[in-house]
Amino acid sequence: MKKSVFLGALTVAGIAAGGVFAGTLDDVKARGKLNCGVTTGVAGFAVPDANGEWDGFDVGVCRAVAAAVFGDPTAVEFVPTTGKTRFTALASGEIDMLARNTTWTFSRDVDLKFDFVGVNYYDGQGFMVPTALGVTSAKELDGATVCIQTGTTTELNLADFFRANGISYEPVPIETNAEGQQQYLAGACDTYTTDASGLAATRATFESPDDHVLLPEIISKEPLGPLVRHGDNEWGDIVRWSLNALISAEELGVTSANIGEMSAGTNNPEINRLLGTEGNLGEMLGLSADWAKNAIAAGGNYAELFERNIGENTPIGLSRGLNAQWTDGGLLYSPPFR
Amino acid sequence: MTTLTDPPKESFRLSMLIYDTRYRSMTIQVVALIGFLIAIGWLISNTANNLAELGKEPSFGFLWEPAGYDINQRLLDYNSQSPHIRAAVIGLMNTLVVAVLGCITATVLGVTIGVLRLSKNWIIARLMTIYVESFRNVPVLLWIVFAMAIITETLPQPKDFRGEDAIATMKLGDSVAITNRGVYIPEPLFSSGIGDVSVFNDAFEVSLDLMAILALLGASLVISGLIKKRADQIQAATGVRPTTWYARLGVIVIPMAILLYVLGFHLGYPELKGFNFTGGTHLRNSLIALWLALSLYTAAFIAEIVRAGILAISKGQTEAASALGLRPSRTMNLVILPQALRVIIPPLISNYLNLTKNSSLAIAVGYMDLTGTLMGITLNQTGRELETVLLGMLVYLTISLSISMVMNWYNNSVKLRER
Lengths: 338, 419
Hints:
The complex is a heterodimer of chains A (338) and B (419). With 338 residues, chain A is of the alpha/beta class. Chain A is built from 14 helices and 14 strands. Chain A has two domains: 226 residues, Periplasmic binding protein-like II (D-Maltodextrin-Binding Protein, domain 2, 3-Layer(aba) Sandwich), CATH 3.40.190; 96 residues, D-Maltodextrin-Binding Protein, domain 2 (3-Layer(aba) Sandwich). In chain A, 39% of the residues lie in helices and 16% in strands. In chain A, helix 3 packs antiparallel against helix 13. The N terminus of chain A is likely disordered. Chain B is mainly alpha-helical and 419 residues long. Chain B folds into two domains: 236 residues, MetI-like fold (Orthogonal Bundle); 68 residues, no CATH class. In chain B, the strands form four sheets. Chain B has a three-stranded antiparallel β-sheet with strand order 1-2-9. The model of chain B has no long low-confidence stretch (mean pLDDT 88).
């Protein structure tokens, strides 16, 4: 028995650590599709629709990368991951990239050996409470029972927030967003805390969203972005610049509607470089010249993705806020395509 | 004259390793062993190489860094600044709590159901059959999730206890509150306790009150045992057994009552304050769900083991016992069960082990056991998959082997001694 357990352990470890991770691009091309890690289901960010097709804001990033590599936004295998399984999945090579509301932190970037390629949503941790509770500030939550997803940065922020304010709480650890929603609605916890965008998305799926409010405190910085394994810089560049292409496209006014017209050539050299009619940016990445055009055509530019999935006209109803272009007072700022 | 000829001396030839049946099995085993060792060596070197390539050298240093997260059910002092190793110990304690509670409940339930399933009463026997078949044929994870869902969805929330016309009320003279966040029961408190003492460089606080109570209880039990022994001797010598129950009871109850009075023992009752009940002992819904589901599930298996054990005892034993005039209940307790134990104990051990290992499903209901802390949150926050999982497996292995050892020792003490 001892032996078999030991052997099992090593097998797991061997699988977890198997393979050498250079040439992710070659692997992806050989496979014919991109393996992209997403959530197990957060409305607006990544959720399968009635036909089993994944859709959402994070899913849009996956599709853009697939389109940049293959010219085909459907060449993606979506791998649902939980807060606990996501890093192992990425480190082991089960997925090529992770686009899953993952907060960019020092230790994840440095110690866990991942590379965050950018930020696709600037978020912060908030609290949701039933209106009937009569709480107006997170500092009034002394002694409250708090539902919290395990294995997330929010878990650590929560501990820090309550410690810093000298108030106590009872954590109820949960595994997935769906579980958190069920526990919260059943009243097994007084408040549910996660990224404010996630709370808004969760609230939008409630029967009566108006019975619940988000408290004004945002207790942390949560820059959410796609990430890849450390050590394969070529692949990291592809994902980074696919994301930047979406952001730049909004800034330059390239949309999925006018992209056909613009890719015939414009007076703006940066648009031409972006869309591959000038220069050889695609070749430098090891992709075709129209890589960025495909990425943008897949689901539209950043603004289109945002408005269609989580924007103010969707049930989730998030405003651009920090996620507006730098020219509009937001934080989105893509380095130039040159 | 006869000449003795030595039998021809057989020289060892290499081919005999394959063609000679005396050596063949050994050859095969040696080859298999070498293959096995090579496979292990390959796995180890492959893991080490790949980890080195990822730049993640195996190291256990992270265990002494602050954990940063909170745990709701903790039997020892713990806060978010405690190191990961302490979080793992808290998790281990939680695993042990649910395993011990589960084993006890499962045994009591299992034995009762197993005996009842053999009942001559048709309805009772059939009901028990339904119980056994429904519980052991559905995966335990589903029972755990189901128990949790029942608790959170059907029981009242703490706020339902508030106000003039509250929907829910506390039970047992306002001393117990049953909510969907768990059950709050009165806790023992000592107004003039003798405090705690730190052991292992302040790693643990040991309550001296509890120690005093346990020591006194132990001493009382020993004295009570001596009284029984004396009664046995008198019975053996004279045939008349002196009545000793009051002395045996008194020797336990009276000193305990005095000690509790001296320590200022009283109960702390739960009270609705703010968002939750405070005071009292909080049995969390996750603990209750896990405990219930594990015990009910394992009880179904134990019931079958007990039934098999009883059926294994020859009918002649029952008949002989009734011929001696023993009532059916005494026949069961004094004749059948003690003999059946010999059949029951070995499979019972493996069910205890199963229950303990199944407790690692705790994360499904958010119970922070060893899997939830060390192999869950710690793994995730530090990214040390290999180290935490190996450590976790080592701990589970240790727990399982300890249970096996104790139960095997017990098995040896009850098994049939052949003379």
